[in-house]
Prior knowledge:
Number of helices: 9
Order of helices and strands: EHEEHHHHEEEEEEHHHEH
Shape: globular
CATH class: Alpha Beta
Helix content: 40-55%
Largest sheet: 5 strands, antiparallel
Number of domains: 1
Distance between the termini: 74 Å
Mean pLDDT: 90
Structural class: alpha+beta
CATH superfamily: PPM-type phosphatase domain
CATH architecture: 4-Layer Sandwich
Amino acid sequence: MFNGFSHSVMGASHEAKNIVCQDSSAHKVHDKYAICVVADGHGSKKHFRSNIGSRCAVEATVETIERFYENVDELETNLPANSKLIIRNIEKQIIANWNVKVMEHLLHNPITDEEKRPFTVLEFEAIPPESYYGTTLIAAVIGRDYTFGLQIGDGSLVAVFDDAWTIMPMDYEESNPANITASMCNSNAASMFDSFYKRDKVPLALFASTDGLYTSFGSDSDFLDYHTILCSQLGDLKNFEPSIVKNLQKRSHFGTEDDISLSCVFNDELLAAKQHIVNDKVTENRELAKSRKKELMRDMHKQRDEVVKRRAEELHKR
Length: 318
């Protein structure tokens, strides 16, 4: 019933600087539900182990959600009335699990002199150990008649529903002070999550991605259309998957040059039944994209003509 894929590609800028990929991704398919998850290590100076932090975040998330699903029927019975509480508990457990993982890593891998080198003694002592591993996180679950997701930090979650309606169910807005980045390493991380729960309208597919993918597009419309196209090709995933990886690599090299992760889970039976609707939507989106491009070109020409006219008037006054 469920299928999926997950890939992380190194950003062109990281390749040029010989920096490791700081993204991680995973998906997990079960009989009655499936999980997609991505994490983006911060990579800034004090988060020098963020590549490990993102990997731990992905592992902690899959483990935590699977633990909540040990009794699937009981969980799904309670979700409709208690979705906010259950998702909040999942978020708290993910943070707790992640902290255990990164502290275990630190215990077995003490900080090296090389890692300390960029800091003064006082600077290094001021960094909380968990900050070494700072990362964002996006995860979502698709079930038999519902879906839910959670997010801390930037990145995007896209859902394609059975009428080919493609949306971002979480428009992430950090409700935090301007100088604080929402991260799993923050002391109040469990209060920084955004989440959603939707019942009775099951998506064909869910796509979680790090911000390197979103920022490679010029508009939200183009970004959403891209996911509709991806959804239209999932029926032949075995042959299509290599093309996905190549496209992510291309978008990194010719777009933001950032690491990119994309994780997807989908309902293959429902998708097969609705394939014609998705295909029609792809065709419709292409025509709308052409119209948007024409309108943009008209606006650009109009602005250019106005600039030329103003300059001519200024020269005439002289």
